[in-house]
């Protein structure tokens, strides 16, 4: 390849990356390393939802904020991300193995409503925010709590506690056309049949609409982004052998077995 061609190709890729679409230029070839894309099946259809980014909101139920040492009345929402390959898809009616991750002795469940973005935007007004949500599912924001706490104590990033492999088990996406929007309804989680988390979606400090609006002030949203909307109080540990079952009214339950 000519040096000049190389720079032309790079310029095309750079321009494409800025526009959010890093397609290779015609004269460029991909390396032989395949990087799989991440998809979430859509319930009741043959469609697959392509995942671009996973955003998560922290401390979004007052009782959970208090148990994590925050004042829920004064703090603006804050967000973190997980990598897309953290997703572990859990088909309805199955109970796949969920591997207990390395480096932790305090592995926690967090049951959460997940919103899937179908229309992007920046600075999305609250009143229009739900028009950007294409569907919903339920998911677990699995957390190496000891590592999260240790990093927090040192004022270091949370990634190692939150953004590790398979830290985002979730179910199939149900379209808004199928289910409507989720502003209230029971959300609960059981471990080995014993109720651990039990709350209502209407207890969120920041609603899904507010999350979409606030998030779009910090990041341009695109189709394929998903948002974990925070967990209620009473997070706690699991160990190998435990079965986690989670429920949100209007969605099929999700179950995994920790191994
Ligand atoms: Mn969470």
Q: How would you describe the overall organization of this protein?
A:
By secondary structure, this protein is α+β, with helices and mostly antiparallel strands. It has one domain (3-258): Fumarylacetoacetate hydrolase, domain 2 (Alpha-Beta Complex). It is 21% helix and 29% strand. The protein has helices spanning 3-18, 62-67, 126-129, 145-153, 159-162, 176-179, 208-218; strands spanning 39-41, 48-50, 54-57, 79-82, 87-89, 97-98, 107-109, 111-117, 133-140, 143-144, 168-170, 174-175, 186-191, 194-200, 226-228, 236-238, 243-248, 254-258. A six-stranded mixed sheet has the order 4-3-15-8-9-12. A hairpin with a 5-residue loop joins strand 17 (243-248) and strand 18 (254-258). The protein binds manganese (II) ion. Manganese (II) ion (MN) binds at residues 56, 110, 112, 141, 228, 230-231.
Q: Count every helix, treating DSSP H or I runs of 4 or more residues as helices.
A: 7
Number of domains: 1
- What's the shape? globular
Average pLDDT: 91
Top keywords for this entry?
globular; 259 residues; six-stranded mixed β-sheet; binds manganese (II) ion; alpha+beta; single chain; Fumarylacetoacetate hydrolase, domain 2; five-stranded mixed β-sheet; disordered N terminus
Quick recap:
Helix content is 21%, strand content 29%. The protein has 7 helices and 18 strands. A hairpin with a 2-residue loop joins strand 13 and strand 14.
């Amino acid at each position: 390849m000519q040096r000049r061609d190389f720079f032309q190709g790079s310029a095309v890729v750079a321009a494409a990356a800025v526009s959010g679409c890093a397609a290779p230029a015609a004269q460029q070839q991909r390396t032989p390393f395949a990087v799989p894309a991440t998809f979430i099946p859509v319930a009741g259809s043959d469609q697959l939802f392509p995942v671009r980014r996973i955003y998560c909101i922290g401390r979004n139920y007052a009782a959970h904020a208090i148990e994590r040492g925050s004042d829920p009345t004064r703090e603006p929402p804050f967000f973190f991300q997980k990598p897309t390959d953290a997703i572990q898809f859990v088909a309805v009616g199955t109970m796949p193995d969920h591997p207990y991750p390395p480096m932790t002795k305090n592995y926690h469940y967090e049951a959460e409503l997940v919103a899937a973005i179908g229309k992007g935007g920046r600075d999305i007004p609250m009143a229009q925010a739900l028009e950007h949500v294409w569907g919903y599912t339920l998911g677990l924001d699995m957390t190496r709590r000891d590592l999260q706490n240790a990093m927090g104590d040192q004022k270091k990033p949370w990634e190692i506690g939150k953004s590790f492999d398979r830290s985002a088990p979730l179910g199939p996406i149900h379209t808004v056309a199928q289910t409507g929007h989720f502003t209230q309804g029971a959300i609960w989680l059981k471990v080995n049949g014993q109720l651990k988390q039990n709350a209502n979606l209407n207890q969120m400090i920041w609603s899904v609409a507010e999350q979409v609006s606030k998030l779009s002030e910090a990041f341009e949203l695109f189709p394929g982004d998903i948002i974990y909307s925070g967990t209620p109080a009473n997070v706690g540990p699991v160990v190998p052998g435990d079965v986690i079952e989670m429920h949100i009214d209007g969605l099929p339950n999700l179950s995994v077995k920790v191994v």
